[in-house]
Amino acid sequence: SKDRIFLKRFIPFNESFLRLIGYYLAEETAEAGEEGKESYYVSFPVPEDQHLREAILTDIRKVFGEGGRGGVEPTINQRGITLSGQVVYWLFKKILKLQTDPLRKQVPSFLMKFPKDKIKFVISAFFSIRGIPKPEQNIITCSSKSRELLKDLDLLLLRLGIFSDYSNLSGKRNTSYSLVLTKENVSNFATKIAVSYTHLTLPTKRIV
Predict the structure, then answer these.
(1) What angle do CA 94, 97, 102 make, to 5 degrees?
(2) Distance (Å, rounded) from C-alpha 47 to C-alpha 61?
(3) Hey, which bits of 7-157 come out as E strands?
(4) Which end of the chain has fewer beta carbons closer than 10 Å to its terminal beta carbon, N or C?
(5) 195 falls in which pLDDT band (50, 70, 90)?
(6) Those residues with Cβ within 8 angstroms of residue 138's Cβ, 6 or more apart along the chain or in another chain
(7) What CA–CA distance (Å, rounded) separates 72 from 39?
(8) Do residues 60 and 20 make contact, with C-beta atoms less than 8 angstroms apart?
(9) Residue pLDDT, tens place only, 90-149
């Protein structure tokens, strides 16, 4: 059974683990199997950017080890990059207390008190998925269906001296929320967070 897996005795809470939390917050699904089937999984989005996809897979291996012999073997399917197994599911769902409902997602409370040099990895991963740079206007935007999630991210950015503007975007069917970084905050973000995937390569100096 795919739920019979073996993990390393100690799972490192390292940079890779923090990035996985950021990827998960950006766009995630973590569910138990349907209709009572004992099938559990955690999925991360599959980005179009091949370098980012490989980065996510590399972080998974650094945290959970190489697949094979009952280990955690990531697969790419309609759910995204999927990790099967009850232990992995409960780690994300119950221990880290990460929400599955996009409207209720939040940064775990314990991370809000993490050192500045640690929280940047969560922010970096989130923006690598959700961040939209607009170099001609010298701004970065990101959006989410969860108001509380963006408020948490705003507070984390403030801890790093990065200021953002928060707004809501109301539509006929649903409401989404947005953070916008402008002017010197873009260069501060590029310097302190250092997101450099293909779609989110930013200047380190202010654009006038």
Answers:
(1) 120
(2) 18
(3) 29-32, 40-44, 75-77, 80-84, 132-134, 139-144
(4) C
(5) low
(6) 182, 183, 186, 206, 207
(7) 14
(8) yes
(9) 888 888 888 888 888 999 999 999 999 999 999 999 998 888 888 888 899 998 889 999
Q: Is 168 helix (H, G, I), strand (E, B) or coil?
A: strand
> E strands within the chain?
29-32, 40-44, 75-77, 80-84, 132-134, 139-144, 165-170, 175-182
Interacting residues of 12 by C-beta distance below 8 A, sequence separation 6+? 62, 63
DSSP 179-199: EEEETHHHHHHHHHT---SGG
**Cα gap 51→153, rounded to integer Å:** 24
Please give the structure tokens belonging to residue 191: 């310097």
Contact between 108 and 115 under an 8 Å Cβ cutoff? The reply is: no
d(CA 109, CA 116): 15
Lookup: tokens for 9? 């005795």
Token reading at 86:
């009850």
Higher pLDDT among residues 69 and 177, named by residue: 177
- Contacts of 114 by beta carbon, 8 Å cutoff, 6+ apart: none
